[in-house]
Amino acid sequence: MRWVENSIIQRSHGGLKQFLQVKERFSPFYRRPEKEYHRGIKEKGDEKVINQVTLVGRLTRDPDLRYTPDGKAVSNITLAVNRHYKNASGEIEADFVHCILWGKTAENTSNYCKKGSVLGVTGRIQTRNYDNQEGKRVYVTEVVAEGVRFLSTKPASTREAPQASHPPQQPQTVPAAPQREELPFA
After folding, report:
1. In this structure, are 1 and 18 located in the same domain?
2. Are residue 31 and residue 69 in the same domain, yes or no?
3. Over the stretch 13-43, which tens digit does the pLDDT of each residue have?
4. Domain that holds residue 7
5. What is the domain count for the chain?
């Protein structure tokens, strides 16, 4: 770093004055390098983390709308997301990503989307675990959707009026989501 400082002083006509102006602009990188890594991150343990997912894929089945005992709408969907490369046999593979939708997002998705609909989902990754009926621990990784965009258009036959052939489904109830105090990793 010393040779950079010397070359800046030697090249500039203002010498030390210009160097100090440049140094002031980049001061977060000069001050306390052991404590300040980047502007906004001050010390170890204070790092900012990003947990954001953006997916575009097709629904593998019709969304199932259920309600918690508190009356909150929840829907579980699975998106088939194509990979950007072909495998050894020349086929494009897909990943099947489980997503959880809450509230009005869940209701709208179950009302307006069906198997094969193209959705854009933004959200965050969530992991959880539970013991299944055999007593084995099961780990689940899923996306909790914060926003959903409907990217496919409705067929012309369904645009005019909703189909009357499907009777309205009775909502099922699901157990309430665990509170923050109940989570072992919170």
Report:
1. yes
2. no
3. 555 565 556 555 555 544 544 444 444 444 5
4. 1-45
5. 2
Q: Flag whether 131 is in a domain.
A: yes
Q: Please provide the distance, in angstroms rounded to a whole number, between the alpha carbons at the two ends of the chain.
A: 42
Residue recorded with tokens 């005019």: 160
Locate tokens 């390098």: which residue?
Answer: 33
Strand partners, 104: none
In this structure, are 62 and 147 located in the same domain?
yes
Angstrom CA distances, 30 to 11, 14, 44, stand at 20, 21, 17
Longest dimension (CA), the chain: 83
- The 10s digit of each residue's pLDDT in 64-116 is 999 999 999 999 999 999 998 888 898 889 999 999 999 999 999 999 999 99
Residues 12 and 104 in one domain: no
* CATH code of the domain covering residue 111: 2.40.50.140
64, 76 contact by CB (below 8 A): yes
